[in-house]
UniProtKB/TrEMBL annotation:
Entry keyword set: ATP-binding, Kinase, Nucleotide-binding, Transferase
EC number of this enzyme: 2.7.1.2
Official protein name in the record: Glucokinase
PANTHER family (alphabetical): GLUCOKINASE
Native species: Luteibacter jiangsuensis
Length: 333
């Protein structure tokens, strides 16, 4: 069976043509074509998918699975970061497909833990070997995603989250000042306002404003580049604060899930700033302190390329989901 698999974020749309062979285990899914598109270049998700179909698909395809930033609710994906509204019923009608299945993008990445994702990362901290417990995928991109993978029989269980929408918990006095700059009258500041690509730029702008300077850098990429080159003191501090906040957030998730199976840091740009992350306060903030430190020190953390793991995880989820629905229908027949 041929089908389309997409990993659709706020900035990039990864799309693949897949073929299912055998029973749909990760090893039984073949990626026949794969491309990444900038979402902002297309007026709709249907137009983006049509561009892929026109250039890469030369065989009839009637099924599609889309891992999208946000949470599917009925036919719709609920998310503030996507470039356009995403509705499976509209996509089905516009593209003439029989089925468009939706899941969360980090849920898909968590399914990819059973594929090459788990073996492909660079070790950041903690033990070198994975334990038997749950695993997490966590990743800043346009937003901040996270999902949990719990091993089990006959299948692991995967849990999507909206952890990036949790309240930002400042640690240092400087972080408290950034928080106050973001919300001068108090109120809700989700952690993804700080721990994401746009968040990194926001932190840089906040630090400049707190020191009475006019920001000169205009994109998150320019901030990490200036920090790597030690060319701008506020960029260096912004990256340091970003990495520390990512460490604190990831440690908070680890305290609630005890992921001795490991944490895989993903997202579109983290692997490109690995050296900055490795030199930062990430690990110190991840470990927190007091008695929990000894527990969190048992958790291995890797940084992985986001790449095509999202579409592969989405394909894996889709085939398992279809097998389960087919078995249920068979039992009721
Ligand atoms: N080298 C870099 N340093 C810092 N930020 C970067 C870098 N490259 C890209 N970004 C920022 O990362 C964000 C895009 O992240 P990503 O590539 O993960 O996109 P996405 O998959 O669409 O995101 P999401 O899944 O969170 O919606 C943009 O805000 C972009 O400006």
């Amino acid at each position: 069976m041929y089908f389309l698999a997409g990993d659709i974020g706020g900035t990039n749309g990864h799309v693949a043509l897949m073929r299912a062979a055998g029973d749909g285990r990760p090893g039984g899914i073949e990626t026949l074509a794969y491309r990444v598109f900038p979402c902002a270049s297309f007026p709709s998700l249907a137009a983006l998918l049509q561009a892929f179909i026109a250039s890469e698909v030369h065989t009839p395809v009637s099924r599609c699975v889309l891992a999208c930033a946000g949470q599917p609710m009925g036919d719709e994906v609920v998310n503030d970061n996507l470039a356009w509204p995403v509705r499976s019923d509209v996509l089905r009608a516009t593209l003439g497909l029989d089925e468009v299945a939706l899941l969360n993008d980090f849920e898909a990445l968590a399914y990819a833990i059973e594929g090459p994702l788990a073996a492909s990362g660079r070790h950041l901290c903690g033990p070198l070997v994975r334990g038997q417990g749950p695993s997490l995928v966590v990743g800043p991109g346009t937003g901040l995603g996270a999902a949990m993978h719990v091993p089990g029989s006959p299948h692991a269980a995967v849990f999507a989250t909206e952890a990036g929408q949790m309240d930002f918990a400042p640690h240092s006095l400087r972080e408290r000042k950034v928080l106050a700059w973001l919300a001068p009258d108090g109120g809700y500041v989700p952690v993804e306002r700080i721990v994401s690509g746009p968040g990194l730029l926001t932190v840089y702008e906040a630090l400049c404003a707190l020191d009475g300077e006019v920001p000169s850098l205009e994109t998150p990429r320019a901030v990490t580049a200036a920090a790597a080159a030690q060319a701008d003191a506020h960029a260096v501090e912004a990256v340091e604060l970003f990495c520390a906040a990512l460490g604190g957030f990831t440690g908070n998730l680890a305290m609630t899930t005890m992921p001795t199976g490991g944490i895989f840091l993903a997202g579109g740009f983290l692997s490109s700033m690995f050296d900055l992350l490795a030199r930062s306060a990430f690990e110190e903030r991840f470990l927190h302190g007091r008695s929990v430190r000894a527990l969190l020190a048992q958790v291995p953390v890797w940084v992985t390329e986001h790449g095509c793991h999202g579409v592969q995880g989405a394909a894996h989820w889709y085939l398992r989901h279809r097998a389960t629905s087919d078995a249920r229908e068979g039992a009721h027949a």
